[in-house]
Structures are given as C-alpha cells and as structure tokens.
C-alpha cells in the first residue's frame, strides 16, 4: 500500500510525501513524549489507551447531532469525552478504594459500551471504521494539504504543530511545579502548590494530544508514543531536565526508524513506529549505563567477586592466626578451582593482596603486608559484629557466625570505629578470639 | 422448533457467559489488588501478532491454530510485563502500556503484511476480535470456557494463601521466602487463560471490563480478600447473565455492551451506597467530623 501510494504520486513529490509523513510523526511524538514522561512518573501511563477507547460515545453523539462523520463537531465530542474520562477516573481513584488503573478500566470500558450501544441503536448506517481509528492512516495525511502563505502544508500539521508548541510552552512555564508534584505530591501540597491543578492541566493536555493525534495517526501510535520514549529516557538518566529532551529525541527517532521500516517492508507506518519505539526501549532496558539489565548483572557480579576475595583473604588470615598455611589448590571448599576462583585470586593479586606466584604455581597462599591489613579489617569487622549481636541482640553463640559472615563485607572503617566505641573497645569476640 | 432452538441457544450463551463472568470476577480480584487491573487489556492486545503469525503459518483461518498463536504471544506479552515490572525503574502501569502498544503495533504490521500477500478477503475476521460475537457462541466455546474455569478456580483455591500474602505484602512474602516471581507469573498465566478462552466470544473491551469492574465494585463492600473474591464473582456472573437476558428482550442491542453496562451500574451503585466506603457514607462521615471540629471550637 505504501509503495503504491508513493509510486502513483507525481515524481518529485514522493520525497515530499515521505518527508512530511516523518514530520507528522515527529509532531505527534514531541508533545506525546513530553506529557508522557509526566504520566509515567504519575502512574497514569494507560491514560492514552483508555481515552482512545472512551471517546466513542462522544464521537457518536457528535455525529447524531451534526450528521457529519468528521470535522470540528466530532473533534469537540471526542475532546469532551476524553476530558470526562480523565476526570471520572480521578474521581474514582480519589475515593482511595481502588487505584487509578482500576478506575481507568471501569471508566473507559463503560464509556466504550455506551458508545457501541449508541452507534448500534441510532446510527446503523454510519460508516465508522474501527480499523481506521485504531491503525491510523498516517500514510495518507500528507495528501490532504492546505496552503499557508507561500507554503503548502498537510492539513493536520497545523493543529499538531500548535499542540506541540503549547505543550513545550506549558512545560517550560510550569516545569518546577510539574516536577515537584510528580515526584512528591504531599510535599508540593504542603508548599502550597496544588497537585490537583497540575493534574488538571496535564490531563487536559493529554486529552488534547490523544484526540488530535489519533485523528491523524491512529490511537495505537499515541498509546505507544506517550509511554515508550518516556520509559526509554527515564531508564537512561536520573535527571528530569535531561530525560525530557531525550524522550523527545527518542520519539522523533522512532518516527524516522518506523517510516524506513514500513517503507522497506511495505507495511503500516503507525505499526512500525510503535515497533521501532519498543525496540529503542528494549535497547535502553538492556544497555542503559546505570539501570540497564547488563549494568545490573555486571554490578552483581562485581559484588560477588568482591565478597569472594574478602572471604579468601579472611580464610588465609584465620589460618595464619592458628599457624596453618593454605595450599593453592588444596582445599576446594575455600577457593573453587573454576572461573570464579581464578578471577578471585587474580583480583587479589591485582590489588596487591596476594603474591603473584599463586596464579602460576601450587605455592602456599601467602598474604602480602597490604593484603594482611585488608584481611585484618575484614576479620575485625566480622568479630566486632559478632560481639555486637551477642551483646545487643542476645543471640546464642552458635547463631553469631552466619549473620557476621554477611555483614563483614559491608563494614567500613567508620562503622567499625563506631561499633568498637559502642562496645567499649572489646579485646575478644564472644567465641574468645582476639579482635585485631 | 425455532422457538426451542432459540431457547437452547440462549441457554448455551447464558451458561458460557455466566461462567466467564464468574471466573473473570475471581481473577479480576487478584489483578486489581496486584495493581495490574488492565493486565487483561494488555494481554488481549498482545494476542494480535499471534493471530497473524498463526494465520501466516497455517495459511487459513483455523480456530485452534489461531487460538494457540494468540495464546502464545499474549502470554509472552504478560511475561514481559512481569519481567519489566520486577525492576525498580518501570512501574506496573508503564510495563502494561508498553507491552500493549508495541505488541499491537507489531500485530498491525503483520496483518498489513498478510493483506499484501493475500489478495482475496480471507484475512477478514482477523481484526473483528475487537468486539466479539456473543450471540455466535456455541457449545464447544462453552466447554472451553468451562474447562478453563475449572483449572483457574482450582489453582486459585489451591494457592489462595500464597496469593493473599504476595498481593497484600509482597516484600514480606519475598523476605519470608515465598516464590513471589513465580506467583506473579502464575497470576499472569491465569489472566491469559481467562482472556484467551473468552476473547473469541466476547471481544477485547468486554473482556477487560469483566476483569476490572466486578472486582472494583466488590472492593467497596469489604476489606476481606475472601469476601471480595466471592462478591466479585457474583457481580461478574450477575452482569453477564443480565446482559444476555436484556439482549434477548431487545434484539438489536449488542450483548457485550449490555453486560458491561450492567456491571457498570452495579459499580456506580456500590461506589455510592456501599457501607463505610461508599460516597454517601464517606460524605456523611466527613460532615460529622467537620461538625465535631466546630463544636470543640
């Protein structure tokens, strides 16, 4: 369909159509990803989905009154029902009995049912194509043009551009208020900023964006553009000031990628933009530097390695205390011969805690002076913690070792000093061993 | 003869939808309390790519294959929700919206792909799943719903305590060693079973409403999990049965919408009149409190 559309248009304008389609996609993506970031923070991500179903009765009533199936009356009907949806949801959620999501579910399904009833009852010959509402026909948007001054623009570019500007203006003007009310509503209220007023404007804007865009590009695209770019951006950064422009960037990037994808497979542009934005999210979900899955796994592995090294040093230290020395490959209980064991020894050598010869030979595991200091600190933490648990929690002797084995890795010098002061600098732990 | 047939048909539809209402009332209670009221909605949208893929592979509209495909991508969608929401960054609602939109978008791409490949109208009906056709329900649909209901109810009764503890205090459940992640996945599986069984006969939006409205209405009447589950099941069954009876009286009205509206009326009634949590009670209490403040002044 996309190919035949481009090939039947006069030569030269095929490029213009392609370009305008991408621009329209971006014009939807900019306000949607900005407002969407706040919806995601406020746990209202599904508002777009709810509104796109709930406007049906408004559209039906507007049709019954005006007798037209497109144009201003339909738009007004849709906008009014969208606002009604948002506020009914808020009312249900404000009761505190069910949460926003359940409220949304109750409101939009009921409104949709009323809409279906109205249409089946009073407008049986109406040609409301649900496919067109859902899938959108962004491909055809550039074909309907108006002339503005010396420019020829697609008709929908004007309201979409206007909404984009309005959204940017609103967010610039009320950035501080939006930020505080989104992250800490009680704090905002105590400071005299009304979270409810910000909510009102946000819901109003969302209704506006949703209705306007799905007239142009289909509801599915709005639902995705409200959520995916925002989630992608919020995964990449902890700062809202950076997340918002990033979200806009990802929204526009989805539009470009989606269009090229649709062009190469000759399929739906709206569907492909949705898939592209999902793909971008997936990448950031996996590879984001701080909150990505990959970074998480790496962090967990590093911690595991650190704990294994700590344990190794502590074991060698305890053996030295009791006068026995530990062979490198002798006791597999202490150091596994596998990859982790090798990495552990490697790390200890790199940090200068063990002699480098343990890596190559079956020599004895011997601490360097620096390693002994480190091991001493770990064992000291362990025994201080045991004393603390014994004195302040009255734990039995045989229950002390296991919790201390966990806590020893997280007791820095400051905590150790504090523990020692509280326990009046004990000389021995509950088992009678001296605290180094 | 015709009269009898209509009565038989009506009975089949009553049995099927009544059971569906009951079982979605039960599962809906769990999802509403889990803060994933719209899981059914997300799943229903996530079935579209599966429908298309099954159609592409099988090459014709064969219901078991289509249902299987729908079930696979739908459940995969909910699996994604479960995994995404387990991290700290993505909340339940965002995970649902992401899966819903992206999967449905993929479904649209696939269905356009099918349209390109097949010139005849054999694709017709792939997207009629939005509204469903309740009046077309036949005995085999009812048997499917009955089988699914039996499995779901058995699992819910069996794991009631486990669900209770994970729904109300998930961190406590995790700390005391309950397999919260598996229970979460199991809950999503239950939603999937109910939606896939009900989707062909009642459609996406009605399925969503059956999973949300009875449970939300039941929440106004009680603070106890057991009671809420039972009340929600009863409301679900009442709403569907009322919808079917109304649609036999007014033949040209769509059954699905009547069911949703019956449930919605129960919800409005509950939200206003229920003792303690209903609007009238809360309002009276607020007034009484304001008055007590005035007197003490």
What can you tell me about this protein's structure?
The complex is a heterodimer of chains A (436) and B (297). Chain A has helices at 2-8, 13-41, 47-54, 56-66, 72-94, 100-122, 130-135, 157-173, 175-183, 185-190, 195-217, 219-236, 240-265, 269-287, 293-321, 339-350, 369-393, 401-407, 413-422, and strands at 145-148, 151-154, 326-327, 364-365. With 436 residues, chain A is an all-alpha fold. Chain A folds into 3 domains: 2-289, ABC transporter involved in vitamin B12 uptake, BtuC (Orthogonal Bundle); 295-367; 372-422, Diphtheria Toxin Repressor, domain 2 (Orthogonal Bundle), CATH 1.10.60. Chain A has a two-stranded antiparallel sheet. A two-stranded antiparallel sheet of chain A has the order 3-4. In chain A, helix 4 packs parallel to helix 6. The radius of gyration of chain A is 32 Å and the shape is elongated. Chain B is mostly helical and 297 residues long. Chain B has one domain: ABC transporter involved in vitamin B12 uptake, BtuC. Chain B has 11 helices and no strands. In chain B, helix 1 runs parallel beside helix 5 (139-158), helix 1 packs across helix 8 (180-219) and helix 2 (39-58) packs across helix 3. Chain B is globular. Chain B starts with a helix and ends with a helix. The interface between A and B is large, with 63 and 60 residues.
Question: Descriptors for this entry?
Answer:
heterodimer, A: 436 residues, mainly alpha, ABC transporter involved in vitamin B12 uptake, BtuC, Diphtheria Toxin Repressor, domain 2, 3 domains, two-stranded antiparallel ribbon, elongated, B: 297 residues, 80% helix
Mean pLDDT of chain A: 82
Tell me what the CATH architecture of the largest domain in chain A is: Orthogonal Bundle
Classify the secondary structure makeup of chain A into a structural class: mainly alpha
The ordered H/E elements of chain A are: HHHHHHHEEHHHHHHHHEHEHHH
Helix/strand-derived category of chain B reads mainly alpha
Helix content of chain A: over 70%
Major sheet size, sense and barrel closure of chain A: 2 strands, antiparallel
Oligomer classification:
heterodimer
Instruction: Domain count of chain A, please report it.
Output: 3
Number of helical elements of chain A: 19
Uncertain spans of chain A: none
What topology, given as strand order, has the largest sheet of chain A?
Answer: 1-2
CATH topology of chain B: ABC transporter involved in vitamin B12 uptake, BtuC
Q: Mean of the pLDDT scores of chain B?
A: 85
N-C termini distance of chain B: 77 Å
Number of helices of chain B: 11
- Strand percentage of chain A lies at under 5%
- The gross shape of chain B turns out to be globular
Summarize the main sheet of chain B: none
């Amino acid at each position: 369909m996309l190919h035949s559309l481009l090939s039947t248009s006069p030569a030269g304008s095929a490029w213009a159509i392609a370009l305008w389609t991408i621009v329209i996609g971006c014009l939807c993506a900019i306000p949607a990803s900005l407002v969407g970031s706040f919806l995601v923070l406020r746990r209202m991500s599904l508002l777009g989905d709810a509104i796109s179903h709930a406007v049906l009765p408004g559209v039906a009533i507007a049709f019954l009154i005006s007798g037209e199936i497109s144009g201003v009356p339909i738009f007004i009907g849709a906008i009014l029902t969208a606002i009604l949806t948002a506020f009914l949801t808020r009312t249900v959620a404000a009761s505190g009995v069910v949460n926003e999501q359940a409220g949304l579910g109750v409101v939009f399904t009921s409104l949709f049912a009323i809409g279906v009833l109205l249409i089946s009852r009073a407008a049986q010959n109406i040609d409301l194509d649900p496919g067109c509402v859902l899938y959108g026909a962004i491909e055809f948007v550039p074909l309907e043009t108006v002339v503005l001054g010396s420019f020829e623009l697609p008709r929908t570019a004007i309201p979409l551009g206007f909404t984009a500007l309005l959204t940017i203006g609103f967010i610039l003007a009320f950035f501080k208020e939006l930020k505080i009310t989104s992250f800490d509503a009680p704090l905002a209220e105590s400071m005299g900023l009304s979270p409810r007023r910000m909510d009102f404007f946000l819901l109003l804007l969302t209704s506006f964006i949703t209705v306007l865009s799905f007239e142009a590009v289909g509801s599915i695209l709005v639902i995705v553009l409200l959520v995916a770019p925002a989630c992608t951006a919020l995964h990449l950064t902890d700062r809202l000031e950076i997340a918002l422009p990033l979200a806009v960037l990802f929204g526009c990037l989805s539009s470009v990628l989606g269009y090229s994808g649709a062009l190469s497979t000759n399929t739906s542009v709206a569907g492909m933009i949705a898939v592209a934005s999902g793909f971008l999210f997936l990448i950031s979900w996996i590879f984001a530097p701080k909150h990505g899955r990959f970074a998480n796994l790496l962090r967990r592995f590093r911690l595991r390695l650190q704990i294994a090294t700590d344990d190794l040093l502590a074991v060698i230290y305890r053996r030295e205390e009791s006068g026995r020395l530990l062979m490198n490959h002798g006791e597999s209980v202490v150091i596994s011969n596998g990859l982790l064991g090798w990495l552990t020894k490697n790390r200890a050598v790199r940090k200068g805690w063990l002699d480098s010869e343990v890596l190559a030979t079956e020599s004895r595991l011997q601490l360097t002076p620096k390693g002994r200091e480190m091991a001493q600190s770990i064992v000291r933490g362990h025994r201080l913690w045991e004393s603390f648990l014994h004195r302040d929690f009255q734990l039995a002797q045989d229950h002390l070792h296991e919790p201390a084995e966990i806590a020893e890795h997280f007791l820095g010098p400051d905590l150790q000093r504090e523990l020692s002061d509280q326990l009046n600098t004990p000389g021995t732990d509950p088992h009678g061993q001296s605290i180094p | 003869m015709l009269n009898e047939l209509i009565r038989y048909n009506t009975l089949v539809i009553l049995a099927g939808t009544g059971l569906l209402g009951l079982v979605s009332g039960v599962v809906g209670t769990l999802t509403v309390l889990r803060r994933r009221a719209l899981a059914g909605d997300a799943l229903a949208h996530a079935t579209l790519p599966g429908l298309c893929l099954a159609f592409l592979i099988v090459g014709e509209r064969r219901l078991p294959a289509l249902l299987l495909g729908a079930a696979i991508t739908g459940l995969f969608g909910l699996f994604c929700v479960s995994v995404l929401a387990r991290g700290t960054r993505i909340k339940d609602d965002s995970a649902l919206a992401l899966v819903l939109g992206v999967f449905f978008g993929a479904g649209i791409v696939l269905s356009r792909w099918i349209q390109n490949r097949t010139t005849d109208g054999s694709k017709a009906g792939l997207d009629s799943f939005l509204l469903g056709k309740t009046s077309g329900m036949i005995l085999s649909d009812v048997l499917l719903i009955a089988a699914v209901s039996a499995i779901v109810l058995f699992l819910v009764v069996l794991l009631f305590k486990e669900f209770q503890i994970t729904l109300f205090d998930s961190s406590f459940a995790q700390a005391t060693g309950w397999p919260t992640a598996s229970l979460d996945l199991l809950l999503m599986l239950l939603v999937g079973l109910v939606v896939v069984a009900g989707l062909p006969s009642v459609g996406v939006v009605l399925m969503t409403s059956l999973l949300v409205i009875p449970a939300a209405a039941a929440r106004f009447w009680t603070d106890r999990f057991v009671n809420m589950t039972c009340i929600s099941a009863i409301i679900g069954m009442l709403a569907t049965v009322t919808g079917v009876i109304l649609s036999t009286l007014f033949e040209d009205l769509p059954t699905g919408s009547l069911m949703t509206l019956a449930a919605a009326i129960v919800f409005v009634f509950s939200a206003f009149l229920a003792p303690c949590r209903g609007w009238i009670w809360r309002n009276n209490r607020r007034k009484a409190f304001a008055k007590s403040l005035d007197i003490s002044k």
